[in-house]
Write a structure and sequence with these properties.
The structure holds two protein chains of two kinds. By secondary structure, chain A is mainly α. Chain A contains 22 helices and two strands. In chain A, helix 3 packs antiparallel against helix 4. The chains are: A mainly alpha, B mainly alpha.
Chain lengths: 501, 482
């Protein structure tokens, strides 16, 4: 019984809890915080059975729930996770706990609304990762915009209004075209069920149009090269928690969308436009990496590094098609992409939280305002250096595993793709470590830095949890690989068969 | 021959007529000081009884029988009954908001509610009209009551200007409509919808018929406020007292929608190919003009007026979808009016004596002043923008689905692109409410009942999700049995 409705509980517990927090109001801030923490921890604990009771040997959808919702349009409330979605759900529940903790002292205005927005967002994100009905997916996919819009707009920086409206309109425009695509698919098939849609034969022309409709929606979300400009703005203006959820989880929705929608439903068009996607991914990896180097604002730097790292995800996903042609190891490419998503979730969260720690003390994110932080904040310095190393892909951290798998796979496809992708190891080290050098090391540059206090126990706990995840995934990624193996193979088997009529 | 038993199906109309007269008389003896509580009570009670009388036949059997009365000039069917129930429910909200508005302005008089009831009666006659005579009578009853309601504050110059504009343009539109009817009569030899329908089916389409159709279309487009016959709408919405604007965006819109369905889908289904492109172009122009002009408005009433135009366009898209599209248009109309009434309701609530909270800047920092109202407005605005999971999204989904099913993929794509443009101005209001600092900390003084009505109204954006499948199923059913 419990297992049958586990996903629903995970979705609705934080959402209803969030509405409850809204009702509690401004006056009971202390109670609101504890309640928010309790709700997020409860959601996390409830998500553990998802991992422990997951049958890694099967590619089938698990923890399935299916109820007819709107009969006239054949819409079902249909949930379920496979090996690719499940780790992302866990990632969401873990990160949310940390976000609630990180806001403990920092958010002083409308705490109840902040916590409520975060919890509602958590529920929607879990909904996105577990929806198996295309329209239900779209519902959660779009609904996420509302809390995020509010989070950036209310608790953001000075230029927050511009950033949040840009964020909203960019993503909204991307996704309404996807809606048209989905309705068109429904007209063709009479169903929103993703499995049935994957089996639907489509002509090449239909697939091409649909591919671009989906491509715009997901490319904006990831974000991929020419449509990435909303992300640096949004990140710079967002409060720390907003940046964390944006980088750690929301960007993953785009990559997940490609794996769940574009690949299975439109394999032939995906095959056809592999060149485009790989080119854009490589541009993201190299060009955006170069852009990151010259940033003066730490958050902007990490935002660009996120785009660059997400380039690996799309690279891995679409390498599958090149490798299929050359009988290469396409499992590795896709597995690498998913691992990169999970790992980037932890590392980017940690990086943004580190910047948040600095920002809370000096209220500036400019690299030039810092210097010699290690002298006054040794613990923090150690964490920051560690996460920067992970961000640049140091072996032994989770950042290495995904990137290495994708680079290795790309060698089998084409030397020059591999060569270009591998440049990221140099660029990543350059922007991450150069920033570290200027911020953390050296002698103390000004009085403000001298007066800084080292991390308190709350901040220490948050960073330590993330460090453990980054290390464990880096040293021993096998459980994660194991859990998604069957699902990855199923995707690849499916896309290797043409469905053109 | 006419018999007393023929009156029974028309009982709701008779009730509203009688009560309108009662309210008019009671209003004379109820002073301004008592706040009009009794009048509002009577009016709301009328609507509640009307709901019972109208809906009771459908509780026992799901079957919707179709009854023609008064020599075929009046029809009672599921379509009409469903729309009427929606009208009653909307009017209950309108009565409460109007009471709040008139009280803050110390201008409570019985006529206002009597006029609202007469307009409601006109709406009901239009919904049930089955001949152009009864349709026209209903239309004029709504229009004349509305002119008076717009001019209700006698000393307000803006209101008088709006009423004048409304009256002149409205009279012209009525004239065009009548001219179209006379041409149609010439072409088919009848004024009754059923007979016109069969006459059109028999004969080849001649010039006179098409010409009549065009003039009737102009009349309908004017009443709905579809581009290019929308000019009156922003001025009237802005100039009228907020409570009247609120009313104008509720029942009369349903009446115009019912008129469109009765005339086009029921009477002229056989010349669908003629009117479909007309409706499609009206719809497209409305969506484009409404959304683009709304972008630059600083006056919230005016912005809502342009947003109404764009929503009307979206609803008309549903009619383009043919027989199945009518259900989606109906659903869109119902959902949109619930949103619109809620949106204007908040303007009414924030208004203080003599000052309407009609500028977007009046909403600055509403979240600080009263986070509950801000949240209610947020729900309504996002619902209007069509962001899931709010019910406005489903309304758009149904319409888009009908349009794509009818083979107009490009229309659907244009519509959603302009919906994104439209999202911007709704976001602007959210921005003002949530991200800006409040300039005043004046408390919002609203009586409990109005607050409850508003909360129900706004929470319906989420609450309707629960009954959404049933509601839509009903829309499909009643439009199939037209």
């Amino acid at each position: 019984m419990f297992e049958q409705s586990l996903l629903s509980v995970l979705i609705w517990l934080p959402m209803i809890g969030g509405l409850l927090l809204l009702a509690l109001g401004q006056q009971r801030a202390g109670m609101v915080k504890f309640l928010a923490l309790a709700l997020s921890v409860a959601t996390f604990l409830l998500s553990i059975p998802l991992w422990t009771q997951f049958d890694g040997g099967s590619a089938a959808l698990q923890f399935v729930e299916k109820v007819v919702w709107i009969d006239a349009l054949n819409i079902h409330y249909h949930l379920g996770v496979n090996g690719i979605a499940m780790p992302l759900v866990i990632l969401t529940t873990v990160i949310t706990v940390l976000i609630v903790l990180s806001a403990w002292r920092v958010i002083d205005k409308h705490v109840h609304q902040y916590m409520a927005a975060m919890l509602i967002l958590e529920g929607m994100l879990i909904g996105v990762f577990s929806a198996h009905d295309a329209l239900l997916f779209y519902l959660f996919f779009e609904a996420m915009l509302i809390p995020m819009f509010i989070i950036i707009g209310v608790w953001g920086g000075p230029n927050r209004v511009y950033a949040t409206i840009k964020f909203f309109l960019y993503t909204f425009l991307g996704s309404v075209l996807m809606l048209i695509g989905l309705i068109y698919l429904y007209m063709q098939s009479g169903t929103w069920n993703l499995t049935e849609l994957a089996a639907l034969p489509l002509t090449m022309q239909q697939q091409t149009w649909l591919f671009f409709a989906f491509f715009i929606a997901f490319a904006v979300k990831i974000p991929m090269f020419p449509v990435h400009t909303w992300l640096p703005d949004a990140h710079v203006e967002a409060p720390t928690g907003g940046s964390v959820v944006l980088a750690a989880i929301m960007l993953k929705v785009g990559g997940y969308g490609f794996i769940r929608f574009s690949l299975p439903i439109l394999p032939d068009a995906s095959q056809e436009f592999t060149w485009l996607l790989i080119t854009l991914s490589l541009i993201a990896v190299i060009y955006i990496g170069l852009v990151a180097i010259v940033q003066k604002d730490m958050k902007k730097l990490i935002a660009y590094s996120s785009i660059s790292h997400m380039g690996f995800v799309t690279l891995g996903i679409f390498l599958v098609f090149m490798l299929m042609r050359t009988d290469g190891n396409s499992d590795m490419a896709l597995t690498g992409a998913v691992i990169q998503m999970v790992s980037h979730g932890f590392i980017s969260a940690a990086m943004f939280l580190c910047v948040g720690v600095l920002y809370d003390r000096l209220h500036t994110r400019m690299i030039r305002d810092y210097g010699g932080v290690i002298n006054t904040m040794p613990w923090f310095g150690a964490f920051f250096v560690f996460f920067a190393m992970a961000n640049s892909g140091l072996p032994g951290t989770s950042g290495f595993v995904g990137e290495f798998m994708v680079i290795l796979a790309s060698f089998q496809a084409n030397f020059w793709i591999a060569f270009s992708a591998a440049i990221t190891l140099i660029l990543g080290a350059a922007y991450s470590l150069w920033m570290i050098k200027r911020v953390v090391f050296g002698s103390i540059t000004n009085e403000a830095v001298e007066s800084m206090q080292d991390v308190n126990s709350r901040e220490f706990f948050i960073l330590a949890v993330l460090a453990v995840f980054v290390l464990v995934l880096g040293v021993w990624p096998e459980p994660l690989v194991e859990v998604m193996r069957a699902s990855v193979q199923q995707v690849i088997e499916h896309v290797s068969v043409s469905k053109v009529i | 021959m006419f018999g007393w038993s023929e009156l029974i199906p028309a009982l709701p109309e008779l009730l509203v007529l009688a009560m309108a007269c009662v309210v008019l008389v009671v209003g004379l003896y109820s002073s301004n000081r008592s706040g009009g509580g009794f009048i509002v009570f009577l009016s709301v009670l009328t609507m509640l009884f009307a709901i019972i009388i109208t809906a009771k036949d459908h509780v026992a059997t799901v079957e919707f029988s179709r009854q023609l009365l008064f020599n075929g000039t009046f029809i009672r069917d599921g379509f009409g009954d469903m729309l009427k129930v929606v009208v009653y429910i909307l009017m209950i909200a309108v009565f409460f908001y109007a009471k709040q508005y008139l009280r803050t302005n110390h201008n409570v008089r019985g006529e206002y509610f009597a006029l609202l009831l007469f307009a409601t009666l006109g709406t009901m006659v239009m919904i049930s009209g089955h001949s152009f005579i009864s349709l026209y009578l209903g239309l004029e009853l709504v229009a004349l009551s509305s002119y008076a309601l717009v001019a209700y504050s006698r000393t307000d110059i803006k209101g008088n200007e709006a009423a004048m504009k409304y009256f002149i343009l409205g009279a012209m539109a009525s004239g065009l409509f009548l001219y179209g009817v006379s041409l149609l009569y010439g072409a088919t030899g009848s004024l009754q919808i059923d007979e016109i329908s069969s006459a059109i089916a028999r004969q080849d389409n001649d010039m006179m018929l098409v010409l009549g159709l065009i003039f009737i279309m102009v009349g309908i487009a004017f009443k709905l406020g579809a581009v290019p016959f929308h000019m009156w709408l922003p001025d009237v919405y802005q100039g009228a007292p907020a409570a009247t604007t609120l009313f104008l965006s509720s029942a009369p819109k349903i009446a115009a929608f019912a008129l469109a369905v009765r005339v086009l889908s029921q009477g002229m289904e056989n010349i669908f190919d003629y009117w479909q492109p007309m409706v499609a172009s009206l719809a497209l122009m409305s969506i484009i003009v409404g959304n683009i002009f709304a972008l630059q408005q600083d006056n919230l009433k005016r912005m809502f007026a342009y947003s109404t135009i764009s929503h009307i366009g979206f609803m008309l898209l549903g009619l383009v979808g043919g027989a199945d599209g009518v259900a989606s248009a109906m659903f869109y109309m119902i959902v949109y009016l619930i949103m619109a009434v809620g949106g204007f309701g908040i303007i009414v609530l924030l208004s203080s004596k003599g000052i309407e909270a009609e500028n977007i800047s009046d909403f600055k920092g509403l979240n600080q002043r009263n986070s509950w109202y801000a949240f209610m407005m947020l729900l309504i605005l996002f619902s209007m923008a069509g962001v899931p999971p709010l019910v406005g999204f489903f309304a758009k989904l149904y319409v888009l689905q009908a349009v794509i099913a009818a083979g107009y993929l490009w229309l659907a794509i244009l519509a959603v692109i302009f919906a994104v443009i439209g999202a911007f101005y709704y976001l602007r209001v959210v921005k003002v409410m949530y991200f800006d600092e409040s300039e005043t900390d004046q408390a919002i003084d609203v009586s409990f009942d109005v607050k409850a009505v508003l909360s129900v109204n706004a929470l319906a954006q989420l609450g309707l999700l629960v009954i959404l499948p049933v509601l839509f199923q009903y829309c499909i059913y009643v439009t199939r049995t037209l």
